[in-house]
Amino acid sequence: MKKLMLLIALGFFSFSFKPTMGNKSSTDQEIESKVEQLLSKMTLAEKIGQLNQYTSRWEMTGPAPKGSSEQQMLEMIKKGQVGSMLNVTGAVAVRNAQKLAVENTRLHIPMIFGYDVIHGYRTMFPIPLAEAASWEPELARKSSSVAALEASASGLQWTFAPMVDIARDARWGRIMEGAGEDPYLGSQFAAARVKGFQGDDLSDIHTVAACVKHFAAYGFVESGRDYNTVDISESTLRNVVLPPFKAAVDAGAATVMNAFNEIGGTPSTANTHLQRDILKGEWGFDGFVVSDWNSIGELIVHGVAKDKTEAANLAIHAGSDMDMEGNCYITGLNELVQSGKVDEKLVDDAVRRILRIKYRLGLFDDPYKYCDEKREKESILTKENLAVAREAARRSIVLLKNENNLLPLKKDGQTIAIIGELAADKDVPLGSWRAKALTGSAVSMLEGMQAATGKSTVAYARGPKYVDGPSAFTAELSFNTTDRSGLDEAVALAKKSDVVVMALGENCFQTGEGRSQTDIKLKGLQQDLFDAVYAVNKNVVVVLMNGRPIDITEIAQKAPAIIEAWHLGSESGNGIADVLFGNYNPAGKLPISFPRAVGQVPIYYNHKNSGRPTNGEGNVFWSHYTDLSKEPLFPFGYGLSYTTFEYSNLKLSSGSITPGEKLQATVTVKNTGNLAGEEVVQLYIRDLAGSITRPVKELKGFRKIMLQPGESKEVTFTISDSDLAFYGADLKLKAEPGDFKLWIGTNSAEGLEGAFVLKQN
Ligand code: NOJ
């Protein structure tokens, strides 16, 4: 298995290819005519080869390939039967793999190399869910552009990101990969990440092609169990799931990845409505769709195809252009075309799309343009990249509780105990989907606090062991629930300290692909550790490190201060220390509701009202739980600051608008505390009566502002009928006349309320 890797790494394939240099600034029209010329020269076998994608055999991000051995794959590349590879990284490896294709095939068509660069390549940024808590799409653009810089310097031209799946279920492990529960916030982040990865020019060697995934509704898997069934309405699909995809496509995303799940009986990979009608039809998407890992082959397992040929037939008709690791197109397409079951025009359409992106990337001008070892060395893990990571880390932190201004901590004059295994962990903060991050390369919280205080020794106690060395490929994690050693030491340290900073949460491999959980409470002996420490010292600052909303209901009732620090990437510890010691005043807001218990999920702020939302008459027959509040522990959009803000004077420029007119909603926000701080001012709207039921609130705008102590600012949102549009009973996107409510405030549960009417023209 290691042979190809070795040969590639050693530069064994040293051919003397001289690329035909083309015009670097090819216009779209020039590209289209080049694509057509090339297509006209291709045999059916060469076309099918372009649709086939294989993983390298030394790094795999899915079940091991069954279709071909490494040696066979090598031969297939030389025969033009492989159009793309994933999981080949590094300037040398990519160059040598590329040579196999370019120098041996009749038409010298370069392969396109993709990789999961989800939140950084080697410099790691906060996991996407965390970064969305910044409510700064510009930050995501920046971090994605740095990720692209590093990935492109390592030979890659394509990232399988951004993941834009709306997710409402904390049990689902992949919730960490997206921007949370809201279509509006999700759309802003989707577009920003695409722009960050792709820049203004796909052919720029510092950028990579983006791949929006997973098309579609993967975040709605039943029971939060990965790869499971989805059954949602067309209305939920259109109004909730698709907006971030549309935003990403509008931002120019070069490619789209389909999803493992079915919707209402049709697996996404075989879904013509999604891929042909909506994506390529309504939205005019001209890039290509790559299947997810063997998702074409899985059509057999889903039970809609009897073999690979039938699976290929379904997938190509539905508009899946490239077959990732499924071996279905290479197995079945030739026969399908020869027998007339598949019109060759469908194959041409898929090939055209793939060639188009390869041309746009400039791969035909120079297939090795991304393979510059010098640039690779100079571009990766630089000081500049780490500075962006630190900025992103601290801006992603959410202050959940801060009684009696326990935070920020004083650097001197206060004895601080640091407790918990995660506090010293240099690996967990790198998160799941960590691309080429070096194991154990994050700044731990302990190190960050040490650096911030300038103290070489800090008082630290690990407490009981949490979990034994899991990795991305450990199927089940084993948490320590029996060995209490370390507990007494932690309690003793807490007893003699003024303040305790305790890191609690999740191992990074508790989240990510295939990491669904039925229980979202703290695992292992973490709750016991908290209880024992809290019993001897009430001044506990809890620092949460997690990749999903977790149930911290018990802790939230007790701990006076809590910060949500997610998995923050390479600079995690420095970002946390910036916040703990007040070098940065936290301004993050939750991009997702935090449940009180797993039984509340799926829980989200923009739910429907139901016919019985309240218990006006005090009876039992209303929509609620009899054993717990139905409200979240922390609502969407929630987050505190070391200062305080006061909202006043909501003004609407008019009580009504007609289509085409604009309404201004203005509010005054004042910093009423003693510190300068940022606030995310949020606008929510409710359509009171529609042709279908409407959510009780929907985010329609937000603005992050900075206010000095005592300073006030007016914030104005402009609303027009397009902001009120939705897919109604007739599934057409339009605003329906009627009464609306709006709120402007600090989170989804609080705000000054106004009302207006949308009148017919
Ligand atoms: C499967 C995952 O679902 C997808 O997100 C990823 O891009 C591919 N594997 C490739 O690693």
Overall description:
This protein has about 750 residues and is of the alpha/beta class. Among the domains are: about 395-600, Rossmann fold; about 645-760, Immunoglobulins (Immunoglobulin-like, Sandwich), CATH 2.60.40. The strands form 7 sheets. The protein has a 6-stranded mixed sheet. The protein has a 5-stranded parallel sheet with strand order 4-3-2-1-10. Strand 25 (about 740-745) and strand 26 form a beta hairpin. Helix 17 packs across helix 23 (about 570-580). 1-deoxynojirimycin binds near residues 62, 86, 213, 292 and 513.
Key terms for this structure?
single chain; six-stranded mixed sheet; Rossmann fold; 17% strand; disordered N terminus; binds 1-deoxynojirimycin
Q: How is the main sheet built?
A: 6 strands, mixed
Rg over CA atoms, rounded to whole Å, is 27 Å
Low-confidence stretches: 1-24
CATH superfamily of the domain at 394-600, by name, is Glycoside hydrolase family 3 C-terminal domain
CATH class of the domain at 394-600: Alpha Beta
Task: Please count the beta strands (DSSP E, at least 2 residues each).
Answer: 26
Number of helices: 23
Backbone structural class: alpha/beta
From the 3D structure, determine the CATH topology of the domain at 394-600. Answer: Rossmann fold
Mean pLDDT: 94
How would you write the strand order of the largest sheet?
A: 11-16-15-14-12-13
Instruction: Please estimate the helix content.
Output: 25-40%
Distance between the termini: 68 Å
CATH architecture of the domain at 394-600: 3-Layer(aba) Sandwich
Report the sheet-strand fraction. 15-25%
Shape: globular
Each distinct ligand? 1-deoxynojirimycin
